[in-house]
């Protein structure tokens, strides 16, 4: 029997989607950190 998760994905499919999600999430956070640093360098708020 093919093991499935509640979303009808196999564990391998779920891992692949998770890997893609984490990659884009890390990119999003990196862009946000750079944007905050540039804004802080331009006009410090602390």
Helix share, percent:
55-70%
Number of helical elements: 1
**Structural class determined from secondary elements:** mainly alpha
Summarize the main sheet.
Answer: none
| Strand coverage percent | under 5%
Report the average pLDDT across residues. 90
Summarize the structure in words.
With 46 residues, this protein is mainly α. It has one helix spanning 11-42. The longest helix is centred in the middle third of the chain and has 32 residues, at 11-42. It is rod-shaped. The termini are far apart.
Keywords:
46 residues; mainly alpha
Short description:
With 46 residues, the chain is mainly alpha-helical. The chain has one helix at residues 11-42.
Write the layout of secondary structure elements.
Layout: H1 11-42
